[in-house]
Amino acid sequence: MRRSEVECRDDIDSFAPGLLALVESLKPSEEHKFRQKQLVDSVAKSVGKEWPGARLHLYGSCANSFGTTNSDVDVCLEMEIGTESTVEVLLKLSDVLRADNFENVEAITGARVPIVRMSDPRSGFSCDICINNLLAVANTKLLKDYAQLDQRLLQLAFLVKHWAKQRSVNETYRGTLSSYAYVLMCISFLQLREPKVLPCLQVMEPTYTLTTEGTECAYFDKVDQLQDFGAENKDSIAELLWGFFQYWAYRHDYRHDVISIRMGKTLSKQEKNWTTRVGNDRHLVCIEDPFETGHDLGRVVDRQTIRILREEFERAAAVLQYDDNPCVTLFEPYDYEN
Ligand code: ATP
Ligand code: MG
Predict the structure, then answer these.
(1) Alpha-carbon distance 149 to 227, whole Å?
(2) Ligand 2 centre distance from Cα of residue 314 (Å)
(3) Whose CA is nearest to atom 17 of ligand 1?
(4) Which of 82, 219, 255, 272 is 20 to 30 A from residue 331's alpha carbon, by CA?
(5) Which protein residue's CA is at the shortest distance from atom 21 of ligand 1?
(6) 179 lines ligand 1 (CB under 6 A)
(7) Is residue 110, in this structure, part of any structural domain at all?
(8) Residue 18, in any domain of the structure
């Protein structure tokens, strides 16, 4: 039998309670949320002095419900910047934050999305601030809406994000994948599962639309009308976690396919024109951004890190299949460079 056709072990469901207990332990506490709010309030105060018209949005995992105890705080400032460039505003913002006693303030201006990164000694959090990046605000809402459809998405994503952090494969600067990419992989997997656990909100009649930087972000956001969508699928979280790793270890066609939560199915690299390397975009693992459809979240992966990722997916699938104590072994800390 090919490894892509292997069935999961008979006792897989016996590991669900252990995995769910782990999920609970990863959820941010009320105290954690309170400290996050304090940080956001102090950022708002600093920003308000210099830019009274600025609107502050939270994005990323502090707003999309995929935040864990390890997550940072991501803030987007929506403001008129007149003739100044985003980079000039970020440099000015760095000075303002330093003057207000935020620590390790650093403007990262060369990134695809320029940000100011800093830490807050009062709350202990680190925080990324970007300007007018409303696409991130829109994709945050999309992820949050998906999370409300079936609790297994949140559980799966918490476990996958925790696994990725423990196994050191959640570091884009080293050529592995962002948390955002892993959440998209989880959504795609649940859209492809039979019976489906999640629908595809972007192919339905849009009830939410936001247009920014020439990109239209539109989808059906009345998720309370879709609460029973995944009910026919009875898979436990343990079976889904195994299925997720099995998919990425043996079933995904890395050579030809692109995952797309926008379409709720895989697309071909050919139709995306993602068949050859352009600059640093190698397109070895292809994950289409749901709104910026020309953006491949897997573009950071190179020949070495695709091998590391695939070995980690294979290890995870094997641990869930054969190990006596998978809830512990799966998450054993490891760094491929040490
Ligand atoms: P964590 O809990 O690890 O902080 P996160 O969901 O906040 O996870 P990040 O990787 O910190 O994920 O990204 C924050 C947000 O920035 C994402 O939710 C997404 O909106 C946006 N984002 C991150 N990386 C990209 C990317 N490569 N392309 C487009 N948007 C991105
Ligand atoms: Mg974050």
Answers:
(1) 6
(2) 27
(3) 60
(4) 255
(5) 136
(6) yes
(7) yes
(8) yes
Cα 172 to middle of ligand 2, angstroms: 13
Cβ-based neighbour number of residue 92 at 10 Å: 15
Q: Which ligand is nearest to the CA of 71?
A: 1
**Residue 127 to residue 119: CA distance in whole angstroms:** 6
pLDDT tens digit string along 11-42?
999 999 999 999 999 999 999 999 999 999 99
Total domains in the chain come to: 2
- Number of residues that this document lists for the chain: 338
User: Is residue 292 predicted with pLDDT exceeding 80?
Assistant: yes
Nearest CA to ligand 1 atom 30: 136
Q: How far is it, in rounded angstroms, from Cα 144 to Cα 231?
A: 19
Range of the domain at 19: 3-26+136-329
Give residue 69's pLDDT band: very low, low, confident or very high (50, 70, 90). confident
155-210 confidence digits (pLDDT tens): 999 999 999 999 999 999 999 999 999 999 999 999 999 999 999 999 999 999 99
> 97, 113, 133 — which closes off a domain?
133
Q: Is residue 68 domain-shared with residue 140, that is, in the same domain?
A: no
The ligand with the least distance to the CA atom of 130 is 1
Residue listed under structure tokens 């990425």:
248
In this structure, are 21 and 37 located in the same domain?
A: no
204-221 per-position pLDDT tens digit = 999 999 999 899 999 999
The response to whether residue 72 sits with its C-beta less than 6 Å from ligand 1 reads yes
* In contact, 258 and 267? CB cutoff 8 Å: yes
- Determine the Cα–Cα distance for residues 1 and 282; give it in Å rounded to an integer: 32
- Among the candidates 133, 161, 183, a domain finishes at 133
